[in-house]
Specification:
binds protoporphyrin IX containing FE, 22 helices, alpha+beta, Cytochrome p450
Length: about 525
């Protein structure tokens, strides 16, 4: 019976004081129970606070300009997502104008923004062993991804990371492997452009190019080239994952969920657990359905990334899907097609605004194509204007807008104003790739303009090693698939430009949003007009 059962007035008047005793006892037990719950919650809150926030006095970093802290950053999702990326990052970036870096705090954790390329280099490249994406106790800026997917190349350190990274470099960057994948890439680009021609128009350009990005990456990964035709399960678990990984306010939601369920901070909360289970289930089905392609002892079928991973990690005919195969498949799931999709979207968008660039590209394609109309692997990799266009699109529209790390050992850096600064252990460092690529101090007054010509006589590699240009980051933790992505996007652009004009009738005043990647806030419709060049 509930304590608060409503009784009518007559019934009550017939009760003697004795009758109320059991109810009174129950009430006292209930109150004592609540008091205990509040006390234990407060104790747990205090333990959490003192454990995960090193001091409660609010940090500052000596010799670094400060902007006001955001002690409850992220409690309100909207405030956090917009606050961090547009407002907070912008303020930090402005404050770093003279010295090249600036700081604020979230709660009591120092947050340091690196603006100057030379300082970014000192931290990300020269001190790469004093920073991490995920600390051994499971915190750090990539901890959400880590709790959902478990250890994969992007979150791992040590032996696992070495082995997994090597696998990616071999299959997604090595020129011999890229040459091998090019014919499939070209065939898939033609297939997807043909679909666009047949459909004539569509309401969402991003969705239209996503199929190509998915098919090409899984063709190299698993040796199947029509994954986009049965990818609805994959895409729906992916969208839940992207929202979570790209949202800084998720840190707080996770903190609150685990706090109330009494779980340690490092463990996945129930929402993360269910997203992670969903991803693993969909991927497992995909791998099981294509197990012959992974089997290292299967005589038929060509090489692919997961088959060679199985071979290298002791897979057999009976058990081809090893732990390494699962980890690498999860990594491809996590980063494999979304950034390339938005990159293709931004490339088509930018070209639609610049017919003069299309003309120059078409001229270069005509000069280099073979008799059958196709560009061969060597030409597409070395055509200078296509390369400049690609580099400029990656500068203006870097799909991954920022990077962050936790400092594990104090790092000493020299500022632009020749001060020496110590970045304390435990602080979070950020570099905004988006703002760096639009920084007038680095790129001049025309930094916001799409100008492939700026790359004439300027090497992307040099800009990258100076940390002025970081679409794929630089240093030991840079993207190991940059070679693949560049070829993938160039191939699609070359096929599109050879066959069609793409018009985007409603794209003016486009707004961007930032979650795990930078994308258009609204779907952008398109029209396809055949064009023979
Ligand atoms: C346009 C497409 C892509 C862009 C712009 C891109 C960019 C990046 C960036 C900026 C990072 C560093 C992230 C950070 O530390 O904050 C990264 C890491 C990584 N990317 Fe990519 N990426 C792309 C596509 C891919 C693809 C297709 C794959 C796999 C098939 C991939 C696999 C990885 C891996 C494994 C890492 C971690 C590397 C390590 O820690 O050693 N990326 N990527």
């Amino acid at each position: 019976m509930s304590l608060f059962t409503v009784m009518d007035a007559n019934q009550q008047s017939e009760k003697s004081p004795e009758d109320f005793r059991p109810t009174l006892r129950l009430l006292l037990v209930f109150i004592a129970n609540r008091v205990m719950l509040v006390l234990s919650s407060l104790t747990r809150a205090w333990t959490y606070l003192t454990k995960y926030t090193p001091s409660l006095t609010g940090p500052t970093v000596r010799n670094v300009p400060e902007v006001p802290g955001y002690p409850i950053l992220g409690v309100l999702p909207q405030m956090c997502n917009e606050g961090l990326y547009s407002s907070t990052m912008g303020k930090l970036f402005d404050a770093a104008q003279d010295s090249g870096l600036s700081c604020t705090s979230a709660g009591t954790v120092p947050i340091i923004l690196l603006r100057d390329p030379a300082i970014i280099r000192q931290v990300l490249v020269e001190n790469s062993d004093s920073i991490t994406r995920v600390t051994p106790d499971g915190s750090g800026p990539f901890s959400i991804m880590y709790r959902i997917t478990g250890n994969i190349a992007v979150s791992a350190d040590g032996e696992d990371w070495h082995r997994w990274r090597k696998g990616f470099l071999k299959e997604f960057s090595n020129p011999i492997a890229l040459r091998r994948s090019y014919d499939d890439m070209l065939r898939l680009a033609k297939k997807h452009v043909q679909n666009m021609i047949v459909n004539k128009s569509g309401s969402d350009l991003c969705q239209a190019v996503e199929g190509y990005a998915l098919d090409t990456v899984w063709s190299v990964t698993l040796g199947v080239d029509n994954i986009s035709e049965y990818a609805s399960g994959l895409l729906s678990v992916k969208s839940g994952y992207d929202v979570m990984v790209g949202s800084p306010s998720h840190f707080w939601r996770h903190y609150i969920r685990n706090f109330f369920s009494g779980k340690p901070y490092q463990e996945p909360d129930h929402v993360e657990q269910s997203v992670g289970d969903g991803i693993k289930k969909v991927l497992r089905t995909l791998l099981d359905d294509n197990v012959a392609n992974i089997n290292p002892e299967e005589p038929l079928g060509g090489d692919n990334f997961l088959r060679s991973t199985s071979k290298d990690s002791g897979g057999s005919y009976e058990a081809p899907i090893t732990e390494d195969v699962l980890a690498q498949a999860l990594q491809v799931f996590s980063l494999g097609h979304e950034p390339s999709t938005v990159l293709l979207f931004w490339a088509i968008y930018e070209l639609s605004l610049h017919p003069e660039v299309i003309e120059k590209l078409r001229h270069e394609i005509r000069e280099n194509r073979r008799d059958n109309g196709d560009l061969d692997f060597d030409s597409i990799r070395t055509m200078p204007y296509l390369d400049a266009v690609m580099t400029e699109i990656l500068r203006l529209h870097a799909p991954i807008s920022s990077t962050s790390r936790q400092v594990t050992r104090p790092i000493v850096v020299e500022t632009r104003t020749n001060d020496t600064v110590v970045l304390p252990s435990g602080s979070l460092i950020f570099a905004s790739i988006y703002l760096l690529h639009h920084d007038k101090q680095v790129w001049g007054d025309n930094a916001d303009e799409f100008l492939p010509e700026r790359w004439a006589g300027r090497l992307a590699n040099t800009a990258e090693s100076r940390c002025e240009y970081l679409p794929f980051l630089a240093g030991p933790r840079s993207c190991p698939s940059a070679g693949f992505v560049t070829l993938q996007v160039k191939t699609m652009l070359a096929v599109l430009l050879s066959q069609v004009d793409v018009k985007l009738p409603n794209s003016s005043g486009m707004e961007k949003i930032v979650d795990s990647v930078v994308r258009s806030a609204k779907p952008i419709g398109f029209e396809i007009h055949e064009a023979r060049i």
